[in-house]
Amino acid sequence: MVQQIQSVCMECQGHGERISPKDRCKSSNGRKIVREKKILEVHIDKGMKDGQKITFHGEGDQEPGLELIETLCGFQKPISTLDNRTTVITSLPGQIVNRGDIKCVLNEGMPIYHRPYETGHLIIEFKVNFPENGFLSPDKLSLLEKLLPERKEVEETDEMDQVELEDFDPNQERWRHYNGEAYEDDEHHLRGGVQCQTS
C-alpha cells in the first residue's frame, strides 16, 4: 500500500523560496510582511445610512505583488487567514492575472455577524511587479516576442508624425508652467504684462 500526504514545507513555510538568515529583513524576519497597528480616523457624513460601507484603500492586509512570470505562467501563494491558518492560492498556467484584477476565495473572509461559523469571502486585489527596463538582452527579447501573441502593426502614412515616449514627472511639469518655460519655444505665444508706452 502506498500513501501520499501533502504538507507545507517546514523550511520555506509553503512560500517556495528560502531567504538566507543573513539576508533577512530584521523587522519581518524574511516573511516580507510587517504587522503594524494603525489608528484610522473615520469621517461620518450627515445623512449616512445604517450599514453604509466606508472603504480605506490600501489599509488591508498586504502581501508582496506578483512577478510578471507568475501572472502569465501561474503561481502558488500562501496567505495567512484571520484564524491563523495558511492557505495556498493557486493560479494555473495560462490563467492570466492582470494588474488590478480582483478575485475572491470563497468562505475564507471575515466571520458573518451573528453567524460565527459562517464566513464571507476573502477578496484579493492583484498588483503586478513589472521588470526594470533593459532586463532582457536584445536576443532574448526577440525570442520572447516570438512566444507572445503578435502585436498590431500600424500602417504609417505621410500625414503621421513619429514621436517617442518620455518619462513624465507631474511635479517637474508644474514647475515648468509656473516659471513659464512651457511657452518659451512657442513663437506665437504673447506674454502678458505691462508694455512701455511711447508717444
From TrEMBL:
Pfam families: DnaJ_C (PF01556)
Keywords: Chaperone, Metal-binding, Repeat, Zinc, Zinc-finger
Keyword Calcium: no
Biological-process GO terms, alphabetical: protein folding
Molecular function terms, GO-annotated: Hsp70 protein binding; unfolded protein binding; zinc ion binding
Residue stretches making up the Chaperone DnaJ C-terminal domain: 33-64, 67-131
SUPFAM superfamilies membership: DnaJ/Hsp40 cysteine-rich domain, HSP40/DnaJ peptide-binding domain
PANTHER family: DNAJ-LIKE-2, ISOFORM A-RELATED (PTHR43888)
UniProt-recorded name of the protein: DnaJ-like protein subfamily A member 1
Species: Heterocephalus glaber (Naked mole rat)
